[in-house]
Amino acid sequence: MIEYLVKRGIFFIPTIIGTTILSFILGQMAPADPALVLLTMDGNTVPTTIELAQKRKELGLDNPFFVQYMSWFCQVIKGSWGNSYITNKPVFDEVIRAASTTIKLTIMSLIWVVITALPLGIVMAIYEKKVLGKVGFYLTLIFTSIPSFWLAILSIQIFSEELALFPTSGFTSLHSLVLPSIVLGVFTIGLVARMQFDSLRLVLKEPYLMTAQSKGLPYWYIVYAHALKNSWVSVITLLGNYVVGIIGGATVIEIIFSLPGLGTLILEAIRGRDYPMIQGYVLIVGVITIIINSLVDLLHLYLQPKLRLRRDL
Fold it and tell me: For residue 230, is pLDDT > 70?
């Protein structure tokens, strides 16, 4: 286990560096000029060539790509992520503020998924050929077919406008995240439930479980004590991908509900060609992604002793 963590740590730094270099290259390839964007933000000013040159020099955009990247990277090593081109606020503070909102949204949405999808998938597997199992199948089909943006708008209209149970937009407390977290999790509830159903159904057909049934052990005990743990490997992988997807791609939901998260932050940064903010976003998302993937792998090692033996060999 310790050896595995050391290997993960060794690959951590080059992975982050490669990610930031790629995002820097893509930013340089973009047609818009950050200096021009900043000088024309009021919608009336038409900057001269001299003003553009001065602004580019002020931002360090007149330097070669390698110089720009190394300047940013050295500042990050020293603990400074730079300042935003648009707001002139520290990038680190802005990214952490946005990340805290997105992480809270992610955790709440993950809770809804776990407490809903796993029991639904288990029921579908146990009662596969009965009415309850078929009802669960059609529910998952509905969940995976509903567009998130449409569900978000409909939910705001019903639960916020008409019933006044939740705020329509903004983030003031965890209560503000209840509705967007549910909307964000509906699609994944369908996917995880189907994954739990397929995985558990296959595990229940394993010879050792059929032997346990032939010995007269209660069916619920067989499912709880033996089948569930072995069926969660693929489910945990899917949940890990889901968490990473929310961290890096909850933009639509955050915009509809006016949440100050990472999705809203990166969208504004891209619009304004705010390179320091974009790099800060890529860095924090990259770190979170690596941490989550490492946690998923550790859970796999815990659930599957055979994997631990293979790594030891």
Answer: yes
Q: What six digits make up the tokens of 245?
A: 């997807």
CB 246 within 8 A of CB 109: yes
Helices (H), 30-147: 34-39, 49-59, 65-77, 91-126, 131-145
**Average pLDDT rounded to a whole number, residues 38-58:** 79
In three-state secondary structure terms, 79 is: coil
Q: What is the DSSP string of 6-33?
A: HHHHHHHHHHHHHHHHHHHHHHHHSS--
The SS3 of residue 84 is coil
Q: Is 262 exposed, middle or buried (0-12, 13-18, 19+ CB in 10 A)?
A: buried
- Could you report the per-residue pLDDT of 103-154, keeping only the tens digit for each? 999 999 999 999 999 999 999 988 888 898 899 999 999 998 988 889 999 9
Q: Which amino acid is at 308?
A: R
- pLDDT bin (cut points 50, 70, 90) of residue 306 is low
C-alpha of 266 from chain center: 14
**What is the C-alpha separation between 172 and 180, in angstroms, rounded?**
13
The residues near 86 (Cβ < 8 Å, ≥ 6 apart) are 38, 41, 268, 269, 272, 274, 277
Structure tokens at 251: 């933009």
- Look at the block and give the residue holding tokens 């021009």: 36
Distance of CA 109 to the CA centre of its chain: 11
CA distance 99 to 259: 11
Q: In what helix (H) or strand (E) does residue 149 lie, and over which residues does it extend?
A: helix 148-155
Three-state SS for 156-207 is: HHHHHHHCCCCCCCCCCCCHHHHHHHHHHHHHHHHHHHHHHHHHHHHHCCCH
Which residue is it, tokens 């796993």? 118
